[in-house]
Specification:
Layout: H1 2-22, H2 27-50, H3 60-84, H4 90-99, H5 104-154, H6 159-210, H7 216-251, H8 258-267, H9 270-286, H10 291-332, E1 346-350, H11 355-358, H12 366-381, E2 388-392, E3 400-405, E4 408-414, E5 420-423, E6 435-438, E7 445-449, H13 451-459, E8 463-465, H14 467-486, H15 489-502, H16 504-510, H17 517-529, H18 537-547, H19 554-564, H20 566-573, E9 579-585, H21 587-595, E10 597-600, E11 603-606, H22 610-629, E12 635-638, H23 640-651, E13 658-661, E14 670-677
Parallel strand pairs: 1-2, 9-12, 9-14, 12-13
Antiparallel strand pairs: 1-3, 3-4, 5-7, 5-8, 6-7, 10-11
Helix pairs in contact: 1-3, 2-3, 2-7, 3-6, 3-7, 4-7, 5-6, 5-7, 5-12, 6-7, 9-10, 12-14, 14-17, 15-16, 16-18, 17-19, 18-19
Length: about 675
């Protein structure tokens, strides 16, 4: 209800301004409106002084527009009264006689000074500050957004805090952009006031001489004083609002208590106050200046300096005592065990020698690369990677880093800072010397080279990679490898919620009527484990909804989903307009595998004897070796019913082996069999 009343009040404020431009008003009403205008100007001034953050006045550009329109309407009404009746009311007459000293010359001089101060000093400065602030704020937006993403990835802030900071950043950019234009209102208002004043003086003299039969001197004296009063009563509020604008734009985007910060910054150094007091006392004693004023003022500065110094010393002692007490309390307090139970999904720990790569102040971009990794995985595999914690660890070697998944180390690497890793892709024209090493992601042989060798290495055919790229690539591959383990039920719930926004009927049919979150989680994990993207959740959920009524076996449901995603699978493994070399499975072996499948309540498993398994693995090794000699990816094609079991059989021996069924291959794919796995 309050908001509605406020809206009505603002509407009446604007309506009154528009009416005043058209309809004449009485001098009494004009007095009331002028008083309201002055009170609004003071309100705006004190609000801008004591507001802690500029975004607390995000509607300030609109306020400038509204007050400018209202002030121009008052100018028009007062001008109408001056020229028509010669009686614009008490406020205008008082400003003309009292503020202007009742003298024509004094009034004109005071008015001109106000115009010069407002137009040349305050408005010009505010306009320039607003323009520069807007430009720098907009230019800094990408960097600030990346900083927010980096803080989010390191765990310094939560998703909700990151969202709030992004919204605040956008509001700041919008505010300063609007202020850049809104300052023009204030500048134009000052110009309009000056023009109106001169027009009123000329018009008043003409009205006095022609209509009232006054001589030129009397007419000039009467109407000029009234016009100057009108100008002062409008320009003083305008000056206050111009000053408010200057205060607001010079504050920038800093959160601050204006008065406290200003006094502390200006008078917070005792040494400065001692020097100022000494200079003032010296001037009072040595020069003809009034010694009473300058010596007393100097003593006041010295005494204030001593009081501030004492306050600073006391505050320092209290802070030290508080710190010692807090430390003692921390020692005495029982350890918070709950905080130790938290396990980060992904951790990257590194030695002190790698810190510059993660430190933005030292030019490191590792944090930015971590942000890009999360985005890349989300686009590629369709799931959100958990927050990646980056920590320095003094127990590691200076150039060593380790990667942990759920608190367990799964991989490690070592880099040489200020060096580059050069890898031979197989067609290097000339070998160069370097420190032998292995690329951590794929364990390929490589060498460390210096900056001076980089250009030479690239020219002879080496693939040269900088240290941040090495770590980022290694981290990306580890995340891909363990992404299925990182997918939690909460992650699945978030994915379900996203689908519900666009396909509510599909989600209502599937969850929880047909499948629970745990069942969907297992299906998605099965897909991710073999590198299949789950980004097309609508297709996945529709397939699950079609078949969940007949079976709740997540392994079988996974096979149905894979078949519905055959275009994506074909696009991933089989290039368009190219014949792909593959290995097939002997039909007899397929029958043997299916004959060894045992069904239980917990699912199906193979019961092949060890010798048979060993024979099959030897055949797989032989046939896959043919593909590797051709430089092709190891791909085995099986019948749909066997694919799942054959993959389980081989995954412990050949992690990178791709097993695809015939139903998962698009009809336009061309295949060439180069071998057959037999038993």
């Amino acid at each position: 209800m309050k908001m509605k009343k406020a809206d009505i009040g603002v509407a009446l404020y604007l309506l009154g301004a528009i009416i005043m431009l058209i309809v004449p008003i009485t001098s009494t009403l004009l007095d009331v409106l002028l008083a309201i205008n002055i009170s609004l100007a003071f309100t705006i001034l004190f609000t801008t002084m004591f507001t802690k953050e500029v975004l607390d006045l995000s509607f300030y550009p609109t306020v400038l527009l509204f007050t400018t329109i209202f002030r121009i309407a008052l100018n028009v009404s007062s001008t109408r009264l001056i020229l028509s009746t010669g009686n614009p009311g008490n406020v205008v007459a008082t400003f003309g006689n009292f503020v202007g000293g009742g003298d024509l010359v004094i009034g004109i001089v005071v008015f001109i000074i106000l115009i010069i101060v407002q137009f040349v000093v305050i408005n010009k400065g505010s306009e320039r500050v607003a323009e520069v602030t807007a430009r720098f704020t907009l230019d800094a937006m990408p960097g600030k957004q990346m900083a927010i993403d980096a803080d989010l990835n390191t765990g310094a802030i939560t998703d909700a805090e990151a969202k709030i900071q992004r919204e605040k950043l956008q509001q700041e950019a919008s505010f300063f952009g609007s202020m850049d234009g809104a300052v023009k209102y204030v500048k134009g208002d000052a110009t309009a006031g000056l023009i109106i004043t001169f027009v009123n003086i000329i018009g008043g003299i003409i009205m006095g001489v022609v209509r009232q039969g006054m001589d030129i001197g009397a007419a000039a004296d009467k109407y000029t004083i009234l016009t100057i009063g009108d100008g002062l009563v409008s320009q003083i509020p305008s000056l206050l609002i111009s000053l408010s604008t200057g205060i607001l734009v010079t504050k920038g985007s800093k959160e601050a208590d204006f008065g406290t910060v200003l006094v502390n910054q200006l008078f917070g150094i005792p040494k400065v106050l001692y020097m100022v007091g000494g200079v003032l006392a010296f001037l009072g004693l040595v020069t003809p200046l009034n010694p009473l004023i300058f010596v007393i003022l100097g003593i006041i500065f010295i005494v204030c300096g001593r009081m501030i110094a004492s306050t600073i010393e006391t505050a320092g002692i209290e802070a030290e005592a508080d710190l010692e007490e807090d430390t003692a309390d921390e020692i005495r307090k029982p350890e918070n065990v709950n905080s130790l139970l938290q396990v980060d999904p992904i951790e990257l720990e590194f030695g002190y020698g790698i810190i510059p790569l993660a430190d933005v102040n030292q030019g490191g971009d590792l944090l930015d690369r971590v942000v890009m990794i999360r985005r890349q995985i989300a686009l590629e595999l369709g799931t959100v990677v958990p927050i990646i914690r980056l920590r320095d660890n003094i127990q590691l070697n200076p150039n060593q880093y380790i990667i942990k998944i759920k608190g367990i180390q799964v991989s490690e690497g070592e880099i040489l800072f200020d060096h580059y890793m050069a890898m031979n892709p197989g067609f290097v024209e000339e070998e160069i010397s370097g420190i032998p090493t292995f690329e951590p992601s794929f364990h390929l042989p490589a060498i460390w080279i210096t900056e001076n060798q980089r250009e030479r290495a690239e020219s002879v055919g080496y693939t040269v990679v900088d240290p941040p790229s090495i770590i980022a690539t290694h981290l990306t591959e580890i995340i891909r490898q363990y992404l299925s383990d990182l997918l939690t039920r909460q992650d699945v719930q978030n994915l379900v919620n996203n689908v519900r926004e666009t396909n509510p009927s599909l989600v209502e049919e599937l969850v929880p009527k047909l499948l629970g979150l745990g069942d969907i989680q297992k299906v998605l994990q099965n897909l991710l484990r073999e590198g299949i993207s789950v980004r097309d959740l609508v297709t996945i959920f529709e397939t699950l909804a079609d078949h969940a009524a007949s079976t709740r076996d997540t392994d079988i449901l996974t096979e149905y989903v894979r078949q519905s995603l055959k275009r994506a699978i074909s696009n991933k493994y089989f290039p368009v307009n190219e014949t792909t070399s593959v290995v097939t499975l002997d039909p007899g072996l397929e029958q043997e595998i299916m004959g060894s499948v045992k069904q239980t309540e917990q699912g199906a498993y193979l019961t092949l004897d060890p010798e048979k398994t060993k024979t099959i693995m030897a055949s797989v090794e032989s046939e896959v070796g043919k593909l590797e000699k051709l430089g092709k990816n190891p791909i085995v094609i099986t019948s749909p019913i066997v694919r799942m079991y054959f993959k389980r059989l081989t995954e412990d021996y050949y992690k990178d082996l791709v097993v695809v069924s015939y139903n998962e291959i698009d009809s336009n794919v061309e295949l060439q069999s180069v071998g057959m796995v037999t038993a």
